[in-house]
From TrEMBL:
InterPro entries (UniProt xref): 23BDH, KR_dom, NAD(P)-bd_dom_sf, Sc_DH/Rdtase_CS, SDR_fam
Protein name: Diacetyl reductase [(S)-acetoin forming]
UniProt domain Ketoreductase: residue ranges: 8-179
Catalytic activity: (S)-acetoin + NAD(+) = diacetyl + NADH + H(+)
Keyword vocabulary terms for this entry: NAD, Oxidoreductase
Active site: 157
EC number: 1.1.1.304
Provenance organism: Paucilactobacillus vaccinostercus DSM 20634
Amino acid sequence: MIKMTDKKVALITGAGQGIGEAIAKRLHNDGFRVALVGRTLAKVERVAKEINADGGEAFAIAADVSKREEVFAAVDEATKHFGDFNVIVNNAGVAPTTPIDTVTPEILNDTLAINLGGVIWGIQAASAKFKELGHGGKIINASSQAGQVGNPNLTVYGATKFAIRGVTQTTAKELAEFNITVNAYCPGIVKTPMMNDIAQQVADNAGKPFEWGMEQFSKDIALGRLSEPEDVAACVAYLAGPDSDYMTGQSLLIDGGMVFS
């Protein structure tokens, strides 16, 4: 089903909850048609239904970002459905708590496949589609405050997020000649189900309550509050919109003042 309009098309991975859901709803509010990608179809279908009920155009797609062929298929499906493709937000990720002595080959490989592999496959699929369509586009990757400084107990997660900053810089240089920009966003401590799980794991490892676990991450926020998913979505909206057209290769911190550089 092709619907040709002037509204641009954005695809968001990991759009079934948390930051990804907030990004999808913010881009809808900014006038985008949105393709929502997630491993669990029911989750992205719920978000799509809410956006469509609000007068938007949202399309849910099931895909596992660790699988290259599924990412390419999702981009193809979104393009066929909407008739164009302009922005990809490589947001999907996992965040295992891994004190260095607990890292296993399985945890390392699975996290790399999703967090880093998913971004690389998303960049490949999006850039190929932009070139096929004969126009530029925007690629936006999820890094983290934990990709700017080392966070205890997050060896594997932090490694993937540092790597995403490097991939963002490298591919920004490679793709600039095609009018394709590549940038990243680096959230801090965001109130999401995934963040709650991380804090609980850290607390359990230390034999402390959940509140203690969350405090280990939030105690150094200059603005004195945890981030809402909508705070991060606002940063992504800037990267997806025309005001950032002259920006590429950058990783923007949106952490309430945790890292200063």
